[in-house]
Model the fold of this input.
Amino acid sequence: MKKTAPTIRDVAAAAQVSTATVSKYINGAQRFSPKVEAALASAISSLGYKSNPLAKSMITGRTNTIGLSVLDITNPHFSSILKGANRVANDQGYSVLLVDTEETPSRERRTLEDLSLRVDGMIVFSRMREHEMAWMTEIDKPLVFFGSLSELPLPTVASDDHSGAFMLSQHLRMLGHKRIAYLGFSKSRRDEERLGGIRECLDAAGLPLTIYDADAPSLAEGERLCASIVLGSERPDALICYNDLMALGFMKEAENLGVAVPHDLSVVGFDNIPYGKYTTPALTTVDLQSERMGATAMEKLLAVIRGEPVEKLTRIAPQLMLRASTMARRA
Amino acid sequence: MKKTAPTIRDVAAAAQVSTATVSKYINGAQRFSPKVEAALASAISSLGYKSNPLAKSMITGRTNTIGLSVLDITNPHFSSILKGANRVANDQGYSVLLVDTEETPSRERRTLEDLSLRVDGMIVFSRMREHEMAWMTEIDKPLVFFGSLSELPLPTVASDDHSGAFMLSQHLRMLGHKRIAYLGFSKSRRDEERLGGIRECLDAAGLPLTIYDADAPSLAEGERLCASIVLGSERPDALICYNDLMALGFMKEAENLGVAVPHDLSVVGFDNIPYGKYTTPALTTVDLQSERMGATAMEKLLAVIRGEPVEKLTRIAPQLMLRASTMARRA
DNA sequence: CTGTTAGCGCTTTCAA
DNA sequence: TTGAAAGCGCTAACAG
Done:
């Protein structure tokens, strides 16, 4: 609890050198005579001097901070993205400033515009449609976006949701499922991609698809919508859920309703959150490699910041995780 | 992509006033004549002026940023804490700079000391023992700590782990369990408190307690240790796990091993992570109210920052969540 | 190798 | 109600 923290001038005075020398010394920008370096070292430690990062940032224009905006940090998909991104950032001397938009895009633009003034770059996961995002290109800071973009010239990192969905559908089809349903979440930009992959597969096989739509990508929504899917006259024999959270909620409620998974109905999801492996039955899902996506986005952003050239789109291949929630039938 | 962002001086020139006037105007520190305010408003919007927060921070010494340090952001307990803390921070105009120590305390001190120079205050969750934490009181920034402290004069927010553990044990005891075991995590500072609560209950009833210790508070560890707990000659009839993650991992593996929960063995945990409700059987646990803890810690910190007096310790009462993983026996 | 000199963009007395 | 002036703590040419 010092009265006033020592400044670079105090150090300069104590070591009998100029502030420029102190500055260069602490930044390792230059070597000095042993005598000077010794004086500097002792002055710094005896004063307990710490360089003020704010002053430094103001002049260099760099904050060593990256903004990361996600939709809901309690969703394991996003926690993992954050984990991966944060690890890479830390390794390279950066910190992460988090924005959790909590699925409410109203203040998103303001929030991100403000954020952009305090960071060296940002990584954004958003529900906005591409045409609502033009302002992002105006932001005068490097930015990496999660998801693929057709128009906007922004570097992106995306999972291949179309092919992940195709794989999942193909898998269900080959196991003999005939009445497949999709419990989607149309507010998401990835919903269409997943739906596209499912349709491509089922259309080719001449199989019908029933679609349900959730209001939120959550455990509670999967639970809530279960009865209407499972207790109708046309119960599907397989359900593809928009994500694992919904799948887990659905499976629990199905159990309560006396519908056995996978005996009566197969269930699959997306994301490969850790918990899907620990339910009974364990959930078959598409691993989107969340942590790796976060790490890749951060690597890409830091490359942009360093001025290195980067691909516009980095795709991360999804991977099917076969588990017990899926069962062969009519074989 | 402007060449150079407009500064307060550009605005002053465009509006024909001094920079001091612009400064006061944008900060709402003072009202001006309608003529001046109009000129200011139009100059600001036509130039697209944005106040540079770095310059402002340097001079005011406030960054409107709070540092939050947690042990593992993919653990739902911490995601929820972050959620609660972030929400409160945002509501009051603050952002959260996240530190994920990833259960490795080696660089923790350095990281936090550096962090302290970039934020207005910080909230810390740490595995450090109290005597290793004295340096925290030297940090010249408000700080709120998670967990109770006996010596250090730091404001804290803590769950009452002792009483939570007591409740849990009492519950098991009243259901007739006789051979209770604890799968703990001794690296954690809360492990002792939980163990204390368990012991207080069991000792009073003259019941023995077997203790196992995990290397990490994770799903994988619960899974790994299951066999040695369950396949020994003295299988317990109830297991209290350090947290829900371990409990879920344990339950899954128990199933694989042919041990039925709760028929053969009751299992309970701590935290009340959302996923415990969606397994079969659903997990009985102690709700530590993670999100509320995060929110409370942030409220407390912001109060300290505003200079308001705060209690040293805020305790959040834990709550027992009864679910199917526990069963009456020998009744 | 080391120092001098200008500021970065903003806030803040203090005067007018 | 408005402005002049003095920096915040630091870096970045440029000189020597």
In short: The domain at 161-289 of chain A is CATH 3.40.50.2300 (Rossmann fold). The mean pLDDT of chain A is 95. Chain A touches chain B through 48 residues (CB under 8 Å). Residues 17-21, 24, 30-33, 36, 55, 58-61 of chain A lie near DNA strand C (CB under 10 Å from a C1').
